[in-house]
Automatic annotation (TrEMBL):
Coiled-coil regions listed in the entry: none
Keywords: DNA-binding, Transcription, Transcription regulation
GO BP field: DNA-templated transcription
Organism: Acinetobacter chinensis
Similarity comment: Belongs to the LysR transcriptional regulatory family.
Any one GO MF annotation of this record: sequence-specific DNA binding
Pfam families the UniProt entry points to: HTH_1, LysR_substrate
Protein name stated in the entry: LysR family transcriptional regulator
Domain spans labelled HTH lysR-type: 1-59
Keyword DNA-binding in annotation: yes
Length: 299
């Protein structure tokens, strides 16, 4: 590495015509610059510069060597420009991992954003399972629930309240519950491996702040939130959905919220990045966009 540094110093000496001028640019003393050039010459056993009290001139081999040093410096400057452009503008491929239930609220916003930048492309992995960010080269993952300790960088970007929903057909066939205990014998649809996937449910009353734990009967366990919601709409049982996931179905009268004063959890939504990617423009802007989309959906 020291050798490459000396090559860059040599190129600046030739470009500027003197040791002192190169030293001023590189924040080095003329003697330190001269010493680095001598190391280069001693390492190769070849004289690169003719020195006099008035000027410097290249030897024939020094002139050829200078061209390679120029190329080295140009490549380093291009590499630095690439990094700086990543910080300033979204470029290259952005690899995203997003849960199924969240992805549908982001597609329009992500598509419109990506169209603004011709040098940006998106790769979207939609899956409720937590994939390996390093192995899959993921730049940004959206995760729901509590974040385990890890070496990744996680920032909370939103939250969602989990309400209880059934279909209108379910309400026709069952008495509308008045308390959490009324749902103990009901058939439930649970998200497999999810935060609310167990039979034991914790209920919180938003008005009285009362909490209760009720053991429920899990009839169907499903690993896909869209299928879970679809089965709930078809009357197969009670399910817990976030208010923004259920919003459209409630508006279209496909679902009805029961026990509206109660919820079964408040889940945080996180933007998770490997530390190495956390400062690029594409990641920063994507996090802000996703946060705006989710907050608009929640509200």
């Amino acid at each position: 590495m020291d050798h490459y540094k000396r090559m860059a110093i040599f190129a600046k000496v030739v470009e500027l015509g003197s040791m002192s001028a190169a030293g001023r640019l590189l924040n080095m003393s003329p003697s330190a610059v001269s010493q680095q050039i001598r190391f280069l010459e001693q390492h190769s056993g070849i004289t690169l510069l003719h020195r006099s009290t008035r000027k410097l001139s290249l030897t024939e081999l020094g002139e050829r060597y200078y061209r390679y040093c120029q190329d080295l410096c140009a490549a380093a400057e291009q590499a630095q420009s690439l990094l700086e452009s990543e910080i300033e503008l979204p470029v290259g491929e952005l690899r995203l991992a997003v849960p199924v239930g969240v992805a549908r609220y982001l597609s329009d916003g992500l598509g419109a954003w990506a169209k603004q930048f011709p040098d940006l492309s998106l790769s979207l992995n939609v899956d409720d399972e937590h994939i390996d960010l390093i192995e899959q080269r993921i730049d940004l993952a959206i995760r729901v629930g509590e974040m385990p300790d890890s070496s990744f960088i996680a920032s909370k970007i939103s939250e969602m309240q989990m309400g209880l929903y059934v279909s209108p057909e379910w309400l026709k066939a069952n008495a509308e519950p008045e308390s959490p205990e009324d749902l103990q014998q009901s058939e439930w649809l649970n998200l497999l491996n999810g935060h609310l996937g167990t039979g034991l449910k914790h209920f919180w009353n938003m008005n009285t702040l009362e909490s209760r734990k009720i053991e429920t009967r899990s009839k169907f366990s499903i690993n896909n939130i869209l299928i879970l919601q679809q089965m709930c709409e078809q009357g197969y049982g009670v399910c817990a959905l976030s208010t923004f996931e259920a919003h459209d179905a409630v508006r279209k009268q496909k679902l009805v919220r029961i026990l509206p004063d109660w919820h079964v959890g408040q889940l945080n939504i996180w933007a998770v990045t490997p530390q190495r990617n956390s400062k690029s423009a594409k990641v920063r802007q994507a996090i802000q966009l996703i946060q705006n989309c989710l907050n608009a959906a929640v509200n």
